[in-house]
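Batch manifest, entry 17 of 40.
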Amino acid sequence: MRLIRRVALLTGVLALASCSESQPVRSRTAGLNNAPQIGDFAVYARNSLVLRPGASIAAGDLGVKDVATTMLHAGKELALEGASSVQVARSTLGNRVFLDTGAVVGDVHTTALTDFGASHGAVAGMPTMPTLPTPASVTAGTTNLTVAAGTTTTLSSSTSRAAVTLNDSAILRLGAGIYQFASLKLLANARVEAEGTVEIRLTGRLTAGTNVYFGPASGVSLTAAGLRIEVNGANGGSGGVNATPRAVLIDDDGVLRALLLAPNGTSFIGQRTAITGAIAGKDIDLREDVTVTREDGFGAATCVPADCNDSNVCTTDACGASGCTHTPVAAGTSCADSTVCNGAEACDASGSCVAGSPLVVDDSNVCTADSCDPIAGVAHTPVAAGTSCADGTVCNGAETCDASGTCQSGSPLAVD
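Output type: structure tokens
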């Protein structure tokens, strides 16, 4: 059983030397994580991270990668204020860590611990920290999308838009695919619902009001990795850690089941917001009573996007934490080949290209030469005027084709 030590120091500063390479690696059940991977973290920041009173982290580690100069909590890359907590079976990792009175964490990796009466486990030096995930390239569209209050809009496959706005209680449903937007704004009670595996990539910022929802649509079986949101925008103004507008602002009482990545600015998560998944970013501010329960996490990519192209126009290809994915596009999407003659091919729901019905070329008219051009389609060209179109009997005369491709009767033979 792990021993949780309660340390109360008025000065509260413990300077630690770095772990030597000869120090044995403790098991994960003991809490220490001497070789952290990006997928271990429920919340991971590059510059600074703060948990406000009552915020809690479960099923994952809490960490900050770098030594910073400007931070959300003055002088400390990682701060747990008030009665905030990290599940004691997990690790808390940061170069300078502040633990407030009433904070509860497991084992701590740090170079300097400031402890004002928290409960914590073993203390060790900083290991090598993983690199923050790299967002995918994004090209936003040029047309805005606004979903009116109380209405639902569905985008059935990968698409690009400029600014996307969801008004009060609006719902945006997204079919499986990659969605590239300039920005995404949700007003109070709005919802983004994934109907398949979805990536939302923003060139700008994500802003959301109170009581918003990001996650799978009702009846859809997706975990957090099924909705990945990448925000490339930075903070406004000076771009500092507290500058506004922030790269990500999610107001109070939200619900997210997703992976959220914002590498260029601050992610501000409002009070009582419940997150299932993981957050990674430059600076992360979890306000009072926010809960983050790690699910899936940002696993190290096992692929590169170029390797994921399956040359199938009926699938949307993506490279994610679990490798390449090939998500079927909407049924009925065209997968036309280079000729119209064999029919209009269309994708089915399983991501296969289904052949269409070939065009009818033969018009059963001997006075036309029938053909099909790959682009122009079927043509019935009149044969040379005077070409025989005899009907099998000479008694009614010799039938011949005219210049328009019509068979003209001949002069009947004189019988009497």
